[in-house]
Amino acid sequence: MEQIHVVLHPAPLQGHIKPMLCLAQLLSKAGFHATFLVTHHTFKLLPDLTALSANFPNLHFQSISDGLPEDHSRALEFGSFSKIKPYFKHFLLNYSLGDNSMSPPLTCIITDQYLPYTLDTAKELGIPIFSFVSHSACYLLAYLNISKLIEQGDHIPFPDDNMNQEINGVAGLEGLLRRKHLPSYCALKDIAQNPQIQSHLKDIFDLKGCCGLIINTFDELEITILPQVATHFQKVYKVGPLHALSNSKINQNLSHLVASHASRWQADQSCIAWLDSQPLRSVLYVSFGSHAKASVSQILEFWHGLVNSGKPFLWVLRPDVIIGEDGKHVIPKELHQVGAKENGFLVDWAPQEHVLAHHAIGGFLTHCGWNSILESIVAKIPLICWSYDWDQMINAELVSKVLEIGLQLDACDRLTIQRTVQTMMGSKREELQNSIERISECAQHVIGNGGSSNQNLETLVEDIKNIKLNSQHDE
């Protein structure tokens, strides 16, 4: 049989690229010809992705235009990815259907959930397509129910400004879903007639027509939610935590290589030497991920809260995390004063998986991105949640209220930050540690031999093989 060829196409966001790159590794290790397709802009930001092909001979990288000028901000907004569609279609027609002698004909596509143009294109060209979700199932389930909530008329549009109001009637999210967890457009009075929003909701509905949903989670993590998600799709492949699943199947040195190549920033390895000098479970790791922004005043409140907590901390401050009033990136001078940061260590970027696995780390103050939550669970590190946007809001509820493996940061003032850090690293430490160790054991089980995520990956591989066999029979 001719080699199976899968094109994997992530949204041009770091939090989406890394888990899909882990999946691409796993499929390439299964013997598939895996083409990882990103935009030209993304390809330039990531450090030499093609170097990975030396270690994964079946993994190949290609890039296409995103249809935007070089100096475009590429801010996330409605329709921001739509200009990619003609370039994606051209790529499929001229490269991946077998016209290119360097690759076998295309078997199927695995697309990011946030790229609806891929579903239209695949349908037009008659190519089987799977949808990949890099965030939590609880966030996906909330989105899948927006149209239903609009039709019911009780919850959407929001009748008042109480964003903490609980939303009832969504099976699987009882007691969890609140207005603040839904997109801001749910407050618009004309939501049912707004063509842009209705088009967006149609894109969500169209996901149900794909061959299956691949999601970076596992049963025990979202136990009441995943059965409800499964009712919306032909098939659901729960293959998380993908970073741990891929690490379990490849050389550990290569896993660090993959993590570094999925990041647009070069990790500062000096923080590991600093951690080596710190006592067991004494350090709070602080990182707001690859996308979250903060004002100068917010950063200063975090700074004073962390310093006043008296706990050692390793803080990742991306060069672009702070935006001043003039729109420029600025780092407050207070953060550079040596005397004020005797118990802190600051870096532009850190090798997060390596850091979380270090014996000195005792807690993680995070923006609550799904990758960070999964990495923290695998490393058995309790969390403090400062959610920023998107799925992070409902993730924080899941972490603190359902799984009970972390605390929510209720306000962004120095005293609240100080007290929350002291509580998590002190009186609540043992309770949170016990909870996250139980969840971590489940994560280790699902990626092991006979584990559900491992089996779901094997099922996905077999289902893709059957697509190839069926297409050959049709010929």
From TrEMBL:
Keywords: Transferase. It comes from the Eukaryota. InterPro entries: UDP_glucos_trans (IPR002213). GO terms for molecular function: quercetin 3-O-glucosyltransferase activity; quercetin 7-O-glucosyltransferase activity. Belongs to the UDP-glycosyltransferase family. This is Glycosyltransferase. It comes from Rhamnella rubrinervis.
